[in-house]
Amino acid sequence: MSEYRMETEEDMASYLDSTTGHGVIATYVNNGTSSVINIILNNEYIEQEEGIGVEALQPVAYCRSIDIPSVSYGHALNVSAIKDTDGNIIKAATDYTIVNIRPDRTGFIALELEEV
Fold it and tell me: What are residue 47's DSSP bridge partners?
């Protein structure tokens, strides 16, 4: 007999943990109110203009939906510096604007970003 197991809130949080998981610390700014959240930041190929077939790299942040319940286009996401295990900076701290929101209905949300 097979057993179906759902991921728990603790599982999701551990994926995003900045010390033991894959996460990076970011500050989400919503109309002047800010909150610190953990995200996974990727550069992904995104079609630039629909139907033309031109793709380019675009930063995409993955986070838990409950961490940003009222996310909206134009809100800010300030991502801390990304470092390797020796503490060397791989990518400097960067400020982004949210340009697209893609909830996946599993508890995570993908935020397409544009560098400020």
Answer: 55
